[in-house]
UniProtKB/TrEMBL annotation:
UniProt entry keywords in alphabetical sequence: Cell membrane, Hydrolase, Membrane, Symport, Transmembrane, Transmembrane helix, Transport
Subcellular location: Cell membrane
Family label: Belongs to the amino acid-polyamine-organocation (APC) superfamily. Polyamine:cation symporter (PHS) (TC 2.A.3.12) family.
Membrane spanning stretches: 43-63, 75-92, 151-174, 226-244, 264-288, 309-338, 350-368, 380-400, 406-426
Membrane topology recorded in Swiss-Prot or TrEMBL: Multi-pass membrane protein
One GO CC term, this protein: plasma membrane
Name of this chain's protein: Putative polyamine transporter
Broad enzyme group: hydrolase
Amino acid sequence: MGEEASKSNPKLTLFPLIALIFYEVSGGPFGVEDSVRGGGGPLLSLLGFLVFPLIWSIPEALVTAELATSFPQNGGYVVWICSAFGPFWGFQEGFWKWFSGVMDNALYPVLFLDYMKQSFPIFDRLAARIPALLGITLSLTYLNYRGLHIVGFSAVFLALFSLSPFLIMALLSIPQIRPSRWLLVDFAKVDWPGYFNTMFWNLNYWDKASTLAGEVEDPSKTFPRALVGGLVLVVSSYLIPLLAGTGSFSSSPTEWVDGYFAQVGMFIGGSWLKLWIQLAAAMSNLGLFEAEMSSDSFQLEGMSKMGMLPALFATRSVYGTPTFSILFSATGVIFLSWMSFQEIIEFLNFLYAVGMLLEFAAFITLRLKKPNLYRPYRVPLSTFWATMLCLPPALLLILVMCLASLTTFFVSGAVILVGFILYPFLVQAKNKNWILFEEATGWQQCHSELTDQENSGVELLVSSPLASVEEQLSLMQSDSKPS
């Protein structure tokens, strides 16, 4: 019944995918306030959202476009790493990125309450905050369970609603703007770790939507277009409100904390705009949570289909959603939501950085070792220049990791160690039939490798060291198809 439900559900089209990418990466300017505080004023914040997309967002989006269209199946980057380095590192990538994603998702109920407590101080009290966090998480998890296409179209309307008060705020602020205020910076007050972590967090996760590539209609065309649309939308949603807020009145950088845009709206437009921004923040966090939950759960579903996780994770509901994967991810969110905003950002950034370094390495490795891999979209650069494209973001990733605290090194190291231990345990569980796994031809059948033939056709070769030669030949014959 799960497979029939999956097939009956409509695929994601361009605009819902743009909205999901927007919410994977951004969701609007909610949370960028810390970039002004960490940067000691508006200048570094504004420069950051101009420069970081060039050295980080564009390279990551281009790499994602090439690899997501080459491997258009659920699991995304897990499949890329498997193809480049084998199933062990594919599993580690999946574990790091899933844990990072769950930590990221734990932020959104926290951000929602940070905005609401400015009008309803009761949410600053633990007795009200804990039930609110649980209620938000459970209700949003249920919506995610009801179907990915519903989440996609909901994200379109949520994006329009969440960004509309900032367009109004920008228009109202024009008479009050003094460009000289944009140039203010106090280097003595710059918090470089906080600045880089906030900037990085607000511009990463371009690869996240690849985990549900199997649910996208015509991914070879839809993914590149959606990534371009998402990039324009994300950068605009940061710069326009920041230009309006920092240029229209003078304020101390220390005032720019989570939820401060509501106060900016109060100053520029009055209480009605403040309330509108708070409501938009609530709606935005709903979209952020739903997009992240979709990616995390479909990543687990894809890993289960590859034979990396028990078959239970691939079980789908009547709505075509991976039920147990959603519940598992939601449980992680609940356990992590007690942490502070900055703690969560630093932890998830570190794990995300480790995973992204592996993705860039896989991108270059596949260019070198599999030059004939069928790539419906190819970054229009030679392998040498593609490597140069990955160098600046790789250096940025290393910088973010070097700026991490000792606590972050310890926590992240513990998570990585758990992944190293968990993989052989699951291999043993599979081999001993302790747990039911979906995949039938061996644990290492974890990816589909496309190779060009002399006649420009392609064959689908399922690589499995544990499968027999006869099985390989049979799979090649039955799955071959023209490009």
